[in-house]
Amino acid sequence: MPPESAATSPPLPPPRNPSGPYRVCCVCLGNICRSPMAEVVLRAQLAAAGLQDRVIVDSAGTGDWHVGDPMNAPARRQLERRGYDGAAHRARQFDASWLAERDLFLAMDNSNLANLRALARQDDAAPDTMRRIRLFGEVAGLDGADVPDPWGGSPADFARVLTMLETGMARIVSQLRDVVGAAATER
Ligand code: 4NP
Predict the structure, then answer these.
(1) What tens digit of pLDDT does each residue of 129-180 get?
(2) 149: annotated active-site residue
(3) Which CATH number is 22-94+101-180 given?
């Protein structure tokens, strides 16, 4: 089956709590490269769209190797080159308890997606939670592309990841605007 295009991608899941902020968690393996870059880019784009109070973003890795570490230096450097600040980040491991506490999980690649789904199955998560676990490249209209793991790669690899994130998050922010706008009218 071909990957879903932006046109056929299902809409973002509705907020669990229509009167609270919408919560997005970006997820990769180590939480030192892709998902913290995604978090920083999404937060900046939400602020530019005036949605910073309506949508809350965080990130985590499914692995525990880097818990407490700052963002990988080449990832931070690429962010800084384009005007973002990744200095405050400290890596965290995804905890299954978060499955019930976020509205949307954006997996950076298909392996992260499979890891998250496996955690949700172990946790006996509700079908509603499963629907909230999505592939970034699918939601972002990037033909279901993986965000490639840049760890140990060249500056150009990190720059490519950042470009994918900036392009894809712009599309996700426009969907988030719809989903939090719809929640506001339900209040
Ligand atoms: P990330 O990159 O998942 O984008 O943070 C990685 C960082 C560390 C490792 C793998 C990927 N690692 O195996 O330690």
Answers:
(1) 999 999 999 999 999 999 999 999 999 999 999 999 999 999 999 999 999 9
(2) yes
(3) 3.40.50.2300
